[in-house]
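name: query_chain
kind: protein
chains: 1
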Amino acid sequence: MEQEQNRAPETPPAGAPAELPFGEPLLICPGLYRVRVPLPHNPLQALNSYIVLGDETTTIIDVGFNHPACEKALDKALESLGRTWDTVEIVLTHSHPDHTGNLDRIYRDGMRVYANLHSFKEVENLMQMQANVFGPLLRKAATPQQSGLVFRKGKHRLHISAELLPLTCKPDLIYLHEGDVLRAGSFSFEVIETPGHDPWHICLYEPDRKLMIIGDHVLERITPSVSSWFPAYNALEEFLESLGKMYSYDVDLVLPAHGTPYTGLRERVMFLIAHHGERLQELYDLVAAGHDDIVSISSHAKWRYDGRSTRSSSRWARRWPTSCTSCAKARSSKPSAATSTVSSCRSAAAAIEGSITCASI
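structure:
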């Protein structure tokens, strides 16, 4: 899920190009199509599934929620392309249910499913461990009057979206790891492990066509959520390292899981690294000034969430700032610039982690 997940859906201004109807395949290049799959009751509104046509196979990359509307969209896409489910194989960029949940509806016996997972049990185990950490904190802090909380059989329970619910269907998986080549139709995708947003996130790079199916790793207008309940696991460090890996790939077209395809991957990566660096530096300065607990730090941070900003036409039209100093330097520099910036962010993150106490949580 992304950091703007709780914001109201944007309304495009007058004159903005109309979005592709759900379930209607859009040709990207011969043999590769983008299909918008609806995400009901979710501010992200849609997932981009990518369909690769082979002579005997139909490869679908990411499949949407366990929801009738998601199933209907993929049914419609296959029918439009003259394909049937018995030719389909599935590739998952990561474990989140807006990418995997529809497997509960579309999976057929014998269907090949590829992922950077050995088993969905890995996801279930992580969720259970997180619940064991999060549950006591919630019970300590929550009251029945707090928004978003429900009480069932006397126990606190966070009211969550379907994105966090596990799969019922748990098919056998074909494991993909760094450096593997996934062949689909006439395409040969290099598998790139990019943990951070999800421990099992991968991107798929096609060097001959210079395109990358990037999942949620680098989105055009928003940045994916990066979090962990375990202090020993630095998800942000992994995310920044994964961002740095992107700088070495020659990419003409980025195919994200949310939003529209875009260009300028290196520029976007350097902006995101700089963005996280600035946020980390602010947190570091607050800790150095004596704010050593979460409540104190968050209440003194300069940046604030303002849900109204997403409705402005200027934000809708803006891709990302191209005039910031860090991006300008990075565009003309060697890949080592990305590595240097990532290292700075990692150092700030480590310093902060060692200084903050959790007594006020």
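note: The first helix runs from residue 68 to 80.
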